[in-house]
Amino acid sequence: MTDFKKHIHDVPDFPKKGIVFKDITPLLSDAKIFAAAVDRLSEPFVGKGVQVVAGIESRGFLLATPIAYRLGAGVVPIRKKGKLPRAVKSASYALEYGTDSIEAHADAFPRGTKVLLVDDVLATGGTAAAAVELIEAIGGSLVGTAFLIELGFLSGRQKLPGRDVRSLVSY
Amino acid sequence: MTDFKKHIHDVPDFPKKGIVFKDITPLLSDAKIFAAAVDRLSEPFVGKGVQVVAGIESRGFLLATPIAYRLGAGVVPIRKKGKLPRAVKSASYALEYGTDSIEAHADAFPRGTKVLLVDDVLATGGTAAAAVELIEAIGGSLVGTAFLIELGFLSGRQKLPGRDVRSLVSY
């Protein structure tokens, strides 16, 4: 069994004091560990008919596209406000202070398309829940969600009730 | 021969008036075209010993990681200022007004690592040249550069003299 945690490093006080940042760059830069992570994250969804993998900007992109390639699916970027060039749908989520929003092209995929959501970290679940809302607003059928890291103590899973939520490592 | 251009759409006046944006999202979301693009971009570098693919935030991430997976390499993110949690090296490039910079972890890979640089678009070549400078400052050995789109009329290639520069489609 690959010990993925060995390749995820804690960086204290980043991006701000009191936060311990999970740095996944050592995992990504190691060819074998990176391939193993992509394969293991893809595995539960092989044969499930995933047509499109939606990745959340920007670290989510790093995992969504190789998973899409592995599954024989296309990829749809879910981006920060104002980055996509055509008509978008957006969904907002709460921050510590205020709200922020993410966007996807309103015609990103045809109605009924089977979509897998991928991001690097499942923390409070706010962004993930907004992304699911967005995928369904466009008419996608959510097959499941896959995260490299789950911060279990933040209970993000509770914001995705009834969904297939997978993660590779949990803290 | 796959007609990749059919899946890249022109969006006039984005992100600002007078600029025609090349929207690659239709190419990405089509599973077959996306896989063909990844395969074709990887092809010249198969068997060249690429150990790490460096991708430039954030659209570059969408192509760098599946190419890394295809080539059996790791992936290193080159990011905008302030996004990476540990000690970085940075390189700056000219904008229309002023300059901007990109960063990579100073220990992103060991000295002598064979690196392929990937981004979505080669335009004026400013960002690409800064990324090459960064890769070599960290001690990487640049195997080549691969871009989905080359805007030939902006002569970005001239900023990468003596480098192996590949692109899938050219305008």
Major beta-sheet overview of chain A: 7 strands, mixed
Mean pLDDT level of chain A:
97
Percent helix among the residues of chain A? Answer: 10-25%
Low-confidence parts of chain A: none
Number of strands of chain A: 9
Write down the CATH class of chain A. Answer: Alpha Beta
What's the architecture of chain A in CATH terms?
A: 3-Layer(aba) Sandwich
Q: Which structural class do the helices and strands of chain A define?
A: alpha/beta
| Multimeric state | homodimer
**Under CATH, the topology of chain A is which?**
Rossmann fold
Most extensive interface, residues per chain?
A-B, 42 and 42 residues
> What is the 3D form of chain A?
globular
Order of helices and strands of chain A: EEHHEHEEEEHEE
Radius of gyration of chain A: 15 Å
- Give the strand order of the largest sheet of chain A, numbering strands 1, 2, ... along the chain: 5-6-4-3-7-8-9
Beta-strand residue percentage of chain A: 25-35%
